[in-house]
């Protein structure tokens, strides 16, 4: 009797857990599915009630966007800005983070805190000073300016993250490598770095997301030639109306690269984000 | 293979002196052990040889070359760390080959050396495994393997056995000693365990608070400790110490105290040498194995009547803790327990194997 009682309680728990998971999944996925499906519909089909789940998909919106709408160019701008800034942040952040974790500096902790505190600046507060600096150096309307702006936020973040990952690593392995014949740089590059790969990947993804999703910097610092996708998307909402089809297609284009990158590195991502949680 | 010479080597962090004027000449092929309690500076000394700690003052030579400012990679040394420090992302083969690859050995030479070392340490079957798939003892072997493939001038070992369980530790101790007989590489070995030091070292350096207390062979450390610290550190259980002073009865010299302790100095030479200490506080030392109840050592009037406090039966031998007034003495007896707690028994102290120290300086007077 006791056995059935326990197992029926277990059953209820299982059902509840799966119901909750189901709701969460619908909550997370439905808007995305809705967006992707809508982008493949004609404008007439898009608002029909009840919504149509079976229809003949059309790529006409995408075709229009990439031919007439110059979305290929916007996509390229977004990619260049996001990936360059991420690459710079990761390279410099990894070197700087390693130096702060291993070097024996006076007030090293204060230096590290000062660095991360710059990441805490609200984007809005950074825009005006950056605008003045960029105007002086003729960087307004250049992709380089945008990369620079993203890097001012990504670099301190990457440096701080990499510093904590390296600090958790016992230094003995690098010492062993140096005694084995490695230079300090070889000990860093061949011994320490491979061990923080998950952290590096997670940091990279977070930097990429910041730059990719940015609207504020891009809307202020870009001109039509180097506009990024989020800015282009915002222009679809005009006083005369909303280009729903293009908005849906743009949304799909925006999330696809992040989705693919996320899936490609998800093995590292989970380990990276939970690094240090369990020794 | 090479000699290692410390010439007034000093290490300090800011104002804190960690190693004070370390002088030592290690002979080629010698197995030298640095031993002392934690924080005595022995690991720091080793890491200075490795080049992992900067040398604050003095000179350090490996062979004839002064290495103070030489980076670790150029010193041609190999080190075994307490936590093994294997490279977790490489398998055993790659771990052992790493140093050879950096030194640009040919692939065939690397393969030959790694396999030879693996054979010596019986880890051939583990070459494809990652460190996390190995037991503690296996990791230890890999760490030693990584050191010996390089055929370095000097081996440095920093408490290599202290993470192993007791049984494995004894086994690896013997294997390391055998390995040294075979390779004959100059070795500096750091441990806090006096048994390891006594069993492995050609010579032992006893350190305390950054100061070398004595450098000597195991026999000499045991028989002729330079001071009370060395006397108490070497040997297990530790030497018994009894505070006392000299007293002359007729033409015989005794060491006595208020707790009923009394010991007759048989040798007139010793008594003569102690003449300047007549008024001074002394410490008498005797090892547990030099306390006996067979009483044949001394005349009947020199027996001590001691109370049995604790009896520890170790199987082959028994440790008995006696009290003599407020003094406590531990004796080591062959065989099983023979007394009950609370009994008062007669014991004798070996008249030819005792130690005597100046209480003030703690230096040996014999």
Give a quick precis of the structure.
Chain B: It comes from Desulforamulus putei DSM 12395. The complex is a heterodimer of chains A (279) and B (366). Chain A is an all-alpha fold.
Rg measurement of chain B, Å? 25 Å
Distance between the first and last residues' Cα of chain B: 38 Å
List the chains of the largest interface with their residue counts: A-B, 17 and 24 residues
CATH architecture of the largest domain in chain B: 3-Layer(aba) Sandwich
State the end-to-end distance of chain A: 43 Å
Task: List the uncertain runs of chain A.
Answer: none
CATH class (first level) name of the largest domain in chain A: Mainly Alpha
CATH superfamily membership of the largest domain in chain B: P-loop containing nucleotide triphosphate hydrolases
Overall form of chain A: flat
How many whole angstroms does the radius of gyration of chain A measure?
24 Å
Q: Mind telling me the CATH superfamily name of the largest domain in chain A?
A: MetI-like
Structural class of chain A: mainly alpha
Number of strands of chain B: 20
Oligomer kind: heterodimer
**Shape descriptor of chain B:** elongated
Structure description:
The complex is a heterodimer of chains A (279) and B (366). Chain A has two domains: 2-58; 64-273, MetI-like (MetI-like fold, Orthogonal Bundle), CATH 1.10.3720. Chain A is mainly α. Chain A has helices spanning 2-39, 43-46, 60-67, 71-102, 108-119, 123-136, 143-167, 172-180, 184-195, 197-213, 216-221, 229-234, 244-264, 266-273; strands spanning 237-238, 241-242. The mean pLDDT of chain A is 88. Helices cover 25% and strands 34% of the residues of chain B. In chain B, helix 2 (92-102) crosses helix 3 and helix 2 runs parallel beside helix 4 (136-148). The radius of gyration of chain B is 25 Å and the shape is elongated. Classes of the chains: A mainly alpha (279), B alpha+beta (366). The A-B interface holds A 170, 172-173, 175-184, 186, 191, 194-195 and B 50-52, 71-73, 75, 77-79, 81, 83, 85-89, 98-99, 102-103, 146, 150, 156.
């Amino acid at each position: 009797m006791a056995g059935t009682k326990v197992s029926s309680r277990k059953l209820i728990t299982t059902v509840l857990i799966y119901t909750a998971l189901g709701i969460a999944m619908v909550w997370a996925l439905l808007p995305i599915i809705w967006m992707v499906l809508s982008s493949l519909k004609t404008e007439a089909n898009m608002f029909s009630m009840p919504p149509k789940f079976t229809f003949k998909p059309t790529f006409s919106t995408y075709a229009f966007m990439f031919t007439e709408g110059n979305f290929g160019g916007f996509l390229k701008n977004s990619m260049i800005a996001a990936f360059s800034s991420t690459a710079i942040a990761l390279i410099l952040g990894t070197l700087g983070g390693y130096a702060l974790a291993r070097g024996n500096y006076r007030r090293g902790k204060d230096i590290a805190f000062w660095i991360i505190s710059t990441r805490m600046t609200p984007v809005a507060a950074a825009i005006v000073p950056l605008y003045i600096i960029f105007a002086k150096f003729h960087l307004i309307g250049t992709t380089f300016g945008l990369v620079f702006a993203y890097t001012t936020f990504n670099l301190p973040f990457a440096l701080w993250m990499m510093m904590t990952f390296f600090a958790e690593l016992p230094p003995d392995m690098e010492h062993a490598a140096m005694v084995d014949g490695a230079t300090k740089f070889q000990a860093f590059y061949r011994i320490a770095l491979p061990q923080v790969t998950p952290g590096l990947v997670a940091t990279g993804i977070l930097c990429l997301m910041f730059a990719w999703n940015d609207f504020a910097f891009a809307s202020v610092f870009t001109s039509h030639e180097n506009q990024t996708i989020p800015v282009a998307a915002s222009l679809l909402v005009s006083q005369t109306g909303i280009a729903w089809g293009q908005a849906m297609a743009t949304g799909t284009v925006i999330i696809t690269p992040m989705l693919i990158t996320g899936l490609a590195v998800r093995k590292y991502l989970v380990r990276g984000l939970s690094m240090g949680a369990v020794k | 293979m090479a000699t290692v010479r410390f010439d007034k080597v000093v290490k300090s962090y800011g104002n804190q002196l960690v190693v004070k004027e370390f002088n030592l000449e290690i002979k080629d092929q010698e197995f030298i052990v640095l031993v002392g309690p934690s924080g005595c500076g022995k690991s720091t000394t080793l890491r200075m040889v490795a080049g992992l700690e900067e040398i604050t003052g003095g000179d350090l030579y490996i062979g004839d070359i002064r290495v103070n400012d030489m980076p670790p990679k150029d010193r041609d040394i190999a080190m075994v760390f307490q936590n093994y420090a294997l490279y977790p992302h490489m398998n055993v083969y790659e771990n052992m080959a790493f140093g050879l690859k950096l030194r640009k050995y040919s692939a065939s030479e690397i393969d030959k050396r790694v396999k030879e070392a693996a054979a010596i340490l019986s880890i051939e079957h583990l070459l494809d495994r990652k460190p996390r798939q190995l037991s503690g003892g296996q990791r230890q072997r890999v760490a030693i393997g990584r050191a010996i493939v390089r055929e370095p001038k000097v081996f440095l070992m920093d408490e290599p056995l202290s993470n192993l369980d007791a049984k494995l530790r004894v086994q690896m101790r013997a294997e390391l000693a055998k390995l040294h007989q075979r390779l004959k590489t100059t070795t500096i070995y750091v441990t806090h365990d006096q048994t390891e030091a006594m069993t492995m070292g050609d010579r032992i350096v006893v350190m305390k608070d950054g100061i070398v207390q004595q450098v000597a062979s195991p026999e000499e450390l045991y028989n002729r400790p330079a001071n009370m610290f060395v006397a108490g550190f070497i040997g297990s259980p530790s030497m018994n110490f009894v505070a006392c002073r000299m007293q002359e009865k007729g033409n015989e010299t005794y060491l006595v105290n208020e707790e009923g302790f009394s010991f007759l100095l048989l040798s007139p030479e010793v008594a003569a040498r102690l003449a300047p200490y007549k008024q001074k506080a002394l410490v008498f030392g005797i090892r547990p194995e030099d306390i006996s109840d067979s009483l044949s050592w001394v005349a009947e009037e020199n027996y001590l009547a001691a109370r049995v406090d604790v009896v520890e039966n170790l199987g082959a031998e028994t440790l008995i803790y006696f009290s003599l007034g407020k003094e406590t003495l531990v004796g080591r007896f062959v065989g099983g327990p023979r007394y009950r707690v609370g009994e008062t028994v007669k014991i004798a102290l070996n008249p030819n194997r005792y130690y005597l120290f100046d209480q003030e300086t703690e230096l040996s007077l014999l």
